[in-house]
Amino acid sequence: MLLGLGVAAALLPVLVPDQPYAVQVLTLSLCSVVPAVGLNLLFGYTGLVSLGHMGFAGVGAYAAALLMKQAGWGFLPALVAGAGMAGIVGLLVGIPCLRLRSHFFIIVTLAVGLILGTLFNNLDWLTGGAEGLPGVPRPRPLLIGELRIVLGTAVGFYWMAVAVTVAAFVVQWAVVRSPFGKSLAAIRQDEAMAAARGVNVFAHKLAVFALSAAIAGAGGALRACFLRVAAPSSFDLGESINLVAVVILGGAGFQAGPAVGSLVFVALPEVLRVASQARLMVFGALLVVMALYSPRGLLGAAVALRRRMRRADAV
Amino acid sequence: MLFEVAGISKRFGGTVAVDGASFAVREAGIVGLIGPNGAGKTTLFDIICGRQRADAGEVRFEGRRVDGLMPHRLARLGFARSFQECRVLAEETCLDNLLFAAQEKRLWRELLGIVVPPRRAREKARALLAMAGLSRFENVLAGDLSFGQRRLVEIVSALVTEPRVLLLDEPASGVNPTLLGTLHDVLAETVPQMGVLLLLIEHNMEFVMSLAGRVVVMHQGAVLADGTPELVQADARVIDAYLG
To answer: Which of A267, A262, A193 is nearest to B82 (CA)?
Structure first.
């Protein structure tokens, strides 16, 4: 399914040319797919809810923006550095926070998101304050031997966003199927049991928290480069809550969940022209319905539906 | 000395749960731990498993002090346990439960495994599932099994790690007679073969007396009697306090 989505996403501008608006909307949703993949690893697979995850995306965004603006770095190195920076911040934040359990942890992540947001807003000398860091340069063309790939145009940037997103999904896939992923799933299902089997629960949580923050940071860097500004409003509490909504909506713990969630949450309202105001009301209601009838999100509902149809066939 | 409990005491407020319990085990085998409710068996068990800290006393494994170690450290020393309430990974299949138990758990090895997928202990896991009569449930989610079957999955998951010390807390409770027979046979076959020390808390006397080569009786937080099943069953104090 993911493979199909990836190929479809890459071919879209070729098959349906001259749709600049659609390309913009899709790029914007990809900018939220990447942090959602990070949160999915943490929340969907390990069972740790973070209500401040866009804060880490912000760290990645500001780090990348500063490196590109001030130090003249290219986009990809800046993205990697931004992800690394977010991962380090995640590691440092995780050391005290992950000692807490369940709802205490959730409340602290909320505080972390607020603190990071406040820092973005007020460290004028570093982050430009409420104005943010405008004028993030467009990515330079990529040169592979004789091949020159233009990334500055809308479609070029879209392809690069697709590539970054695919990379995030590949990381998620590799982690989920690995022994590390199995231990994370065990921690989600029964922490005491995982520990009795030899899992160092704290170290594992810390590792996945840092990884998840790093992926979010990559998403933040992508967004800053797309919007050409790193602004605090992109990484505030509301955005963090939206990210949790994206993951739940798509289906926490499903590999394709973040993609489905973002398409529905970001792209659909954009296309239907009901963005901003109505979106929060509609999705608030939708989340309540989800919580009541399909706690595993849209993909969970799809899986249940397919199972029911199979059973009906068998009868 | 393989395993030693020396003068363990633990109090909760004014209640003394364990009061200077001591026993030592020279070699691998099956040791039953019995006693009336409130005798302190489970508290002692929790202390050995690293879930609680003793107020006084020591637990030693091969001469090394192991009380107060975190559960994951104990697991890496070769300790495996079951839980009284039975804990399995409900959302995984039976086979995956065993494969998870068998995998190397050190973080850096696991992180390395993201890039280089390690070999998995499929054969060993399948063999143990077959021994427990669970082969046809291999791909069934553990949460969908009956309680007795889940109990078997939990115990063979512990066995697949090839532990040195296996701690089972009331494995027979809530298990129907047929599965209990299977459990009995699995333990009677694997424990001597693996050379593991099995410490068994149990209320089902028939089960524990037929398996254990030695029985430790606890009463009011201390060891009341210690010896072969025949000796213990004939002990007047044990009959008085527990067997009745």
So the answer is: A193
Q: How many CA atoms lie within 13 A of A90 on its CB side?
A: 33
Same domain, yes or no: B146 and B177: no
Secondary structure of residue A82 in the 3-state scheme: helix
Contacting B residues, span 206-235, partner chain A, CB-CB under 8 Å: none
B102, B135, B162 — which closes off a domain? B162
A254: closest CA of chain B, how far (Å)? 14
The string of pLDDT tens digits covering residues A4-54 is 777 777 777 777 777 788 888 889 889 999 999 999 999 999 999 999 999
Residue A189: its chain B contacts at CB < 8 A?
A: 89-92
Query: Is B89 in CB contact (< 8 Å) with chain A?
Result: yes
B58 in contact with A, Cβ within 8 Å: no
Q: Mutate which of A46, A190, A200, A208 to disrupt the B interface (most B C-beta within 10 Å)? A: A200
- Given a cut of 70, is residue A57 above it in pLDDT? yes
CA distances to B25, B66, B74, B81 from B63, in Å: 12, 9, 14, 21
ipTM confidence score: 0.91
**pTM over the 0.95 mark:** no
Within-domain flag for A106? yes
Does some domain include residue A272?
A: no
